[in-house]
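Researcher: Let's do a round of design. I'm pasting the structure tokens now; please hold your answer until I've finished.
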């Protein structure tokens, strides 16, 4: 499929990014924090892009998102951001001191190594496929009968639990551990509009990718969501990034055909 489409992607235009990602969600522009992270970066820095949803898992790393840029395929959301930041001479972390950058790297590691895996474990193991019907588009091909959906979801969940560093925690313990991490972000954010002041940085973009999944793309039965909603400044931050970067949010959402 990739080989058949590659020529088409290569002709997208000079310096136009072809963003390969999962489809839109019913409540948020994407069902993946990493896809949302990369698309938000592109929007913040006004980089021209087009979205392609049929080959999300066919890129160089077999994970979404990935990009085709000037005829070359690149994987990994962070690697793509660094590549594009250099190409377009944009600073993803404007106005940050060396000390600020160290804080950013620490929080980025916490988000991508702890919070996002915690969310994934809750989503696929502790919650059911049926819980997500109101927020996600149809996940399985129509040829798979509906009674099989939870069975397949549970199979994915068991695999997620087995490989997760948090797999031995109960649901309550997982939620409480995630709350401790989210509280540290909340305390650092304080009353600021963005994490490092008045300018949006990559930390805001990464956090928004995560909190959007929790706030908009998780069912009310999610314990992580319930804990997140107690941190009002974090909820406000998510809404602020949404308003600034996605004025067309509603238009982007998945619509039933």
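Researcher: That's everything. Go ahead.
Model: Designed sequence:
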């Amino acid at each position: 499929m990739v080989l058949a489409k590659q020529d088409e992607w290569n002709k997208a235009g000079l310096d136009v990014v072809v963003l390969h990602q999962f489809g839109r969600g019913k409540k948020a522009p994407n069902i993946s924090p990493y896809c949302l992270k990369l698309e938000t970066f592109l929007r913040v820095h006004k980089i021209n892009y087009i979205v392609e949803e049929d080959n999300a898992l066919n890129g160089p790393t077999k994970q979404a998102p990935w990009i085709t840029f000037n005829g070359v395929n690149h994987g990994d959301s962070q690697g793509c951001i660094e590549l594009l930041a250099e190409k377009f001479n944009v600073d993803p972390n404007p106005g940050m001191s060396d000390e600020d950058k160290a804080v950013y790297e620490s929080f980025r590691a916490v988000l991508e190594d702890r919070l996002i895996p915690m969310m994934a474990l809750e989503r696929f193991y502790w919650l059911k496929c049926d819980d997500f019907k109101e927020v996600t588009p149809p996940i399985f091909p129509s040829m798979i009968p509906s009674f099989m959906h939870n069975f397949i979801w549970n199979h994915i969940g068991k695999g997620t639990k087995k490989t997760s560093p948090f797999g031995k925690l109960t649901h309550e313990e997982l939620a409480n551990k995630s709350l401790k991490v989210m509280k540290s972000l909340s305390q650092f954010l304080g009353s600021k509009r963005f994490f490092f002041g008045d300018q949006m940085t990559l930390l805001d973009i990464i956090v928004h990718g995560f909190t959007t999944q929790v706030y908009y793309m998780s069912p009310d039965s999610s314990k992580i969501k319930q804990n997140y909603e107690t941190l009002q400044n974090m909820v406000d931050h998510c809404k602020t990034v949404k308003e600034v970067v996605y004025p067309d949010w509603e238009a982007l959402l998945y619509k039933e055909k």
